[in-house]
Amino acid sequence: MASSPTDAAIALTRLGLGARPGEIERVAADPRGWATAQIRPQGAPQPSGQFADTAERVAQYVDYQSDAGQVRRDRRPPTSMASDTAQTASAADPQAVARREARQAARRDITQDTAQEFLARAQLGATTDDGFAERWALFWANAVTVSAVKFASGAFVGQYEREAIRPHVFGRFEDLVLAAEQHPAMLLYLDQARSVGPDSMAGARRNAGLNENLAREMMELHTVGADGGYTQGDVTELARALTGWSIPTARDQGQTANPSPNRPRRARAMANQIEPGPDGFVFRANVHEPGVRTVMGKTYPASGLAQGQAILRDLARHPATAKRLSRRLAAHFVADDPPPALVARLEDAWTRSGGDLAQVARALIDAPETWTPQPAKIKTPYDFVVSTHRALGTRPQRIQPLRQALLDMGQPPFAAPSPEGWPDAAADWAGPDALVKRLNWSRTAADAAQAADPNALAVAALGARLSERTRLAVARAESRPEALTLLFMSPEFQRR
Amino acid sequence: MTALNMNRRRLLAAASAGVGLAFAGRVAAQTNGPANKLVVVIARGAMDGLSVTVPYGDPNYVPLRGGLAIAAPGEANGALALGEGFGLHPALAGLHDLYGLGQMRFAPAVALPVRIRSHFDAQDVLENGGEGLRQQTDGWLNRAIVAAGGTSLKGLSIGAQTPLILRGDAPVSSWAPGGQVRGGDRIASLLQDLYVEDPMLGQNLARGLATEELVGQGQNMDGDEARVRRNDVQGLGRAVARLMTGAEGADIVAVSLDGWDTHAGQKAQLQTRLTGLDQLVTGLKDGLGETWSRTAVVVATEFGRTARANGTQGTDHGTGSSLLLAGGAIKRGGPIGDWPTLADNRLFEDRDLAPTMDIRSVFKGVLRDHMGLDRAALDARVFPASAAEAPAMDGLV
């Protein structure tokens, strides 16, 4: 397809995270090819840095949890003493104090690691040549959101994005969603790790029961959608099928994380009725609700872990899933109220390819609706901040100012307000206070910028999308910071 | 006061003869006791010197300026008399009081060594102290700290980022008021111009800024002086003064004031900007207390504005402008440098006030006599190769 002069700027802003200096010129020869070349079987680029992988984080988290249990026991008064004297004794116990401090330190370390993960992601966003792959990955991370509003899920959210999302964003959707639902981050965020089959061995013993949270969100938010044709009965059936999906505990770790040479890992695990899955995942047969399940009219025989996996794959392949996520993609990349023709193209690509996200991505790139000159979307705060760094040719250096800026603009790091993920419409991000906060950020970024020529920077950032009005405003500004503030706050920089 | 008095007033004829003595005496004073204080205020956007130090005695002033002309002293909203046919803008009452105390001077027609009309480029030259564009990557105020011994003087910039004038080898600190953008800010109206075809952004930003304004008023009513908001220039002055006092107080400070690019509706804008400037200086004076006697404040801009008013009750980018000096350390005296007059054949390129003095001469005079820098360092390092073109001005402090 022939390219117009605005296509390079559209590609880098609408499909990417904004242009870095010189990028529009490099992309100009083939803007569609630029995006298509980023569709790789191995998925999206990874943030750089030394971070714990999921298995290591599980070990740290399990340590933290068992310390936490000990701290709770320290606080609990022994039955033979009155509670007030017990607290005094406990507070004075140097071992208990040390344990409490160690636990607080462990929690702090994990939180700081997550903050560094976020900084590394923002740095990748600010510097990558694969802006489309990055936006595509962030879309999918948001479509199956894990939020750090809970400490437990926050402890794993970096690993979640790196290991469950990014490798799968150009593969089959069902593989992506299976990796996501089985990751400790999701199992902890939506309480699946605590769900117990009432008629399982453990359920009968402990009087514990189902938690439907993950099952419901799997259907409502991750796959077919609220109008996808399921009932409350289907949710409960799925919740029963998912029982046993869990994460290791200290007891499992003692037996599986330090394998003794004379007992094969799987044998030991099976002896404890644990079936290891991907890193950080365990299937607890003794917690799994026995029996046949029926979900949306289809019957699934009792098969342990495989039962829930089979239901999830069917949900992922359901036409309602293709329809819902095609619309969400179009609304994310092109317009809050997307052109039906575009949604139809994406849905068609999805259906014909059996949910191959590489084919869906190609359909998005090839769709004429993607390249309409008029920008309809407001950047999210994260994309706005990252794109200012890209325009300036810089990257965020420290987490604290980045966190504060995003907090001010309403999108705190890794902390989507609900399992639905971040909202995606102009009304959500461009309210009065949010715009004042964007202006404050723009001024701060502009004051800190080292840009010799704001006029050239405006052209490099927006290319043919730079309007005459904005060009003149930048040229007439009375200082460099004023020029850059106007550029960052201009309609064409705020929109894409 | 006649135009004749103002005509071609000669610079101090014996300037160079007195340099050595003045230098020797001042260094001795500087090495004893606490360091003197220097505040450089950069008025960004090209301050209109003809409205700041009003040449009401020049017969061409009113004809050129028309409705933008500031009335002569004694008339309604008239200038505040400075002598020799000049008067201060009526918004500068605090500075005029200082003039009465012998603590304020002005140079009516200074400019950079190069003739450029780009704000960005001219501010670079003003701050890096070179003879032309991008000759230095650091600022003259930082090089002055280095020349004074590196660590004996403490530098401080006001704002989120260190401006070029204070960037360089000497470590300096910075401080920014925590205030938010307000509806009255220049940027708010510029953005409304950008948003004419994007009413959603325009209306929402206007609403948000109006809310900020209410929040700000509430805070003022609570008497919360610890938080300095963006438009509270007097509060800024007092806050900067606090940062300059005490054993660890800053000795050399750079402050930026924005909003001087008055292409349209100049009179009202300058009333606001100059009121702010006056408040900044009086805030500094109040806050510094007895340290004010050891303080010099320099107010400089990157270039002046056209001698004639334009078609939108404003002025466009020009050349010569005014520089102001204030502070307890400033010596009583009249205008610094010649007045070129506004006669037709005197205007630079038939449009701008012609400069009669290199602005660096004033900077160098202040650095030498107030901060104790030696002449060789000033001529070679702080302002490279400036000895012939911009000799240090005598008798300022």
Structure summary:
The complex is a heterodimer of chains A (496) and B (397). Chain A has helices spanning 7-15, 23-27, 31-36, 54-75, 83-92, 94-127, 131-143, 151-154, 157-165, 173-181, 184-189, 201-206, 213-222, 232-242, 250-257, 265-271, 305-317, 319-333, 340-353, 357-366, 381-392, 399-409, 426-429, 432-448, 454-462, 468-476, 480-489, 491-494; strands at 245-246, 274-276, 282-284, 293-295, 298-300. Chain A is mainly alpha-helical and 496 residues long.
List keywords for this structure.
heterodimer, A: 496 residues, mainly alpha, three-stranded antiparallel β-sheet, two-stranded antiparallel ribbon, 5 strands, B: 397 residues, alpha/beta, eight-stranded mixed β-sheet, 35% helix
Sheet with the most strands: spatial strand order of chain A: 1-3-2
Strand portion of chain A: under 5%
Sheet/helix structural class of chain B: alpha/beta
Strand content of chain B: 5-15%
Share of helix of chain A, binned? 55-70%
Distance between the termini of chain B: 27 Å
Our measurement of the CA-to-CA distance between the termini of chain A, rounded to an integer number of angstroms, reads 21 Å
Which structural category do the helix and sheet elements of chain A fall into?
mainly alpha
Poorly predicted runs of 5 or more residues of chain A: 80-87, 255-264
Largest interface: A-B, 36 and 38 residues
Number of helices of chain A: 28
Largest sheet of chain B: 8 strands, mixed
CATH class of the largest domain in chain B equals: Alpha Beta
Mean pLDDT of chain B: 84
The overall number of domains of chain B is: 2
Rg measurement of chain A, Å: 25 Å
